[in-house]
Amino acid sequence: MSIFSKDYVQGTFVPKHPDKCFNYNGQVQGAKPITFRSSWERRLCNFCDEQDNVLAYGSEIIKIPYFSRQDGKTHTYITDFVMFVKSRSGDLKRYVIEVKPENQSARLDEHGNVIMPPPPKKPTQRRLASWQERCKVIERNNEKWTAARDYCYKNGFIFKVVTEKELGFIYK
């Protein structure tokens, strides 16, 4: 059994304000139209498109190399979103945003180590396989996000993982 839902929503997002979308305004060469891969990503697209304080945004534009200990290889992490936001104080904030379910997000202890979910209380083969898959996904996401935080620090961005909890406050 997979931890990934087979019933997620996918589609192409067409902005009402293409002038502020990097995927449509020509500011990012080779940017493809926005493909949302979940209803949560679609919700964030609508938010970015309609909010006046979001000055510019784009999807799957930034590519970050990262090393995976799971297979000992370097991979490319393509971030979900980039947003340029005017804060209440008038400052420009630049964000790299990853949209993920909370159950696939790494929680860190005070030393920066990943806290894995506990194994199932009744360890059937199916439950153990699901738990192991979830642990691998959390570890891989942590590897990507560690590289993303480093990239953001060096390039003046703020890295943020947005889960269903934060997206619950954004209208549909």
Tally of discrete structural domains: 1
CATH topology: Trna Endonuclease, Chain: A, domain 1
Note poorly predicted spans: none
- Under CATH at level 1, the class stands as Alpha Beta
Strand content: 25-35%
The secondary-structure element order is: EEHEEEEEEEHEH
Assign a percent range to the helix content. 25-40%
Number of strands: 10
Strand order of the largest sheet: 3-6-7-10
Q: Which of globular, elongated, flat, extended, rod-shaped describes the shape?
A: globular
Number of helices: 3
Biggest β-sheet, characterized?
Answer: 4 strands, mixed
Compute the separation of the termini in Å: 29 Å
Structural class: alpha+beta
Radius of gyration: 17 Å
> Architecture in CATH?
3-Layer(aba) Sandwich
Rounded average pLDDT:
88
Textual characterization of the structure:
By secondary structure, this protein is α+β, with helices and mostly antiparallel strands. The protein has one domain: Trna Endonuclease, Chain: A, domain 1 (3-Layer(aba) Sandwich). It is 27% helix and 27% strand. It is built from three helices and ten strands. It has a four-stranded mixed beta sheet. Strands 1-2 form a two-stranded antiparallel ribbon. The chain has a two-stranded antiparallel ribbon with strand order 4-5. A hairpin with a 5-residue loop joins strand 8 and strand 9.
